[in-house]
Amino acid sequence: MASETVAPRDFTSQSGHKIPLRVSTFVTSIHNINSAKNCFDCDFSLSLSWDDPRVIEKGCTENSYLTLGSDVLNPDLRPDVFIINDVAGETDANVVQEEIYVSDIKKGTVVNNRRMRGTFYSIFDVRRFPFDVHVVQVKMYFHSCYVLSGPVPNIKTGWFSPPGSNEFYLSDTINDHQYDITSKASGMSFEGYHFEVTVARQFFSYLMNVVSVVECLFVLSLTVNMLPADELNDRMNMTLIIVLTYSAFKMVVANSVPAVGYMTLLDMLVMGGFLLGACGGIVTLFLNTFALDSETSDLVDYWVVVVEINIWVVLHLWVFYRSEVYKSYESRIKAAQEAQLMRNRSTALA
CATH number of 205-323: 1.10.287.70, 3.40.50.2000, 3.20.20.10, 1.20.58.390? Predict the structure, then answer.
């Protein structure tokens, strides 16, 4: 007798159709934002909601709590969460607390809240450091047997409590986005979801601890040109002190940002002071090599100082314009959010 071939069905659905899954997030904190290592820490609660026929069959009451592993819930319906940019790659192992309760007894709707935490990878564009603004995201996907169908009823994505950070200004709003993901390696499609928070670096400490010292070093570097041209040792010693101090500050700035193929705004300011400070030594070598008289040497030193001051002023005006420091944190964050929204839409259309 010939065996009858049975078409495979979706193992999570009795009807073979995709399971509607609703997703929302409320974030407890975002901390340890490390642009040098391209990562940040996040503590959040992921809220998932789906319909389970067993809840109706068992006659559960509304708002009643359910226990994992009981016969009330269908274990195949509980979705696994796969986090894409989790540094440790622990995914569900990051669940520190979990609760499930009934929200609608007519549809058998249950809500699953999972508190999760971890370190997440994010590329930081630090071209405007220390005036940079970033959009940090926690990205995840679900099995293709689910279809994301909006937020969890009565739960809106946002902060669990007022946000706070010592180094960064955090946006008041949290945006989330649902989209389709197609794996380039396997060709399989998945349901993708991410939430994002916009952060702006608080730059006042950098202005006090780095920029103010750089300004003082520039003024001191001009004193090299005030010494007599024939005082070779004194002029070169002063130049070396200035150059070495700038080098130390350059190393401090390098430790605060990742190794990138471009210069940040603070790099340009420090390197500009470094090069202008080195000009004193170059001019000293020029004057002594050609053995110019005292009057000519003084005239050369004067014009060198004038040119250096003009270059320093132009550099500051350019940095001021590029930094957008004249705008408020709120307006800079809003501009970054709008730009990210356009990128999200482009991703969805692609």
Answer: 1.20.58.390
